[in-house]
Amino acid sequence: MEILKQPFEGEPETREVSTADGQTEYHIAVKELTPLRARVADVADVLVGLYVTGLIIALLLNDPHQDWAALVTAALFFGLYWRARPGLRDSFRKKTKLRLNAEHIAVWQSGGWVCFDRKLPHRFGILQHDYAPMEKLKYEFERQKAAMKRKVLFRKPYYGDSFIVCLEYLGQRQDLVTVYGRKEASAVVARLQACDEIIESRLRQGRGAAIDPADQWGHQPGDLETFTSSIPH
Fold this sequence. Notes:
Blueprint: E1 13-18, E2 24-32, H1 35-61, H2 68-90, E3 94-100, E4 104-109, E5 112-117, E6 122-128, H3 132-148, E7 162-169, E8 172-180, H4 182-203, E9 231-232
Antiparallel strand pairs: 1-2, 1-9, 2-3, 3-4, 4-5, 6-7, 7-8
């Protein structure tokens, strides 16, 4: 059995829509953790875990006979907590909206769209977070202090594992999204590049990445105008 993978499956959520003038536009919703939100999510996970553990201990201590009902209830509490952990973490994700069309690359920032001319030289990429070197120096200093006291210290890096998805626009850096995790940041860049390539291929009449056979042919005299419906992926 063959399964055909759709070009915009998975994260980030991407929709191809048609504008009023019949042009194709891509709406991308990036929902990822930032370094600060990742830290808060980890703290929340620990606190909720401690709370559930306290409930389970209190339940067992209040049941001197240790009957099956108490054990089943404790197991149920633990199971619900374990199932809810991914959703708890997802609730801290930040949503950033981006749009690409033949004219502009736009990102929603501070309550408004910040637009860049797509026709000018540009490319997408990722950079390690600007605070990563300082975080590394701080953690190394704390580790050395702990070693002098014959202690072992481990600190989870947050900025060190965070990356900035940026647009290189006429040689200048324009930050678009801050993402915790290299894999997640790479997925955002890959999606932006894919949308950009498809738009370019349609503008250049087949030169570039095409996802529809019609994209490889230019408009001919007498052609009927076609419109792409809004398709969520």
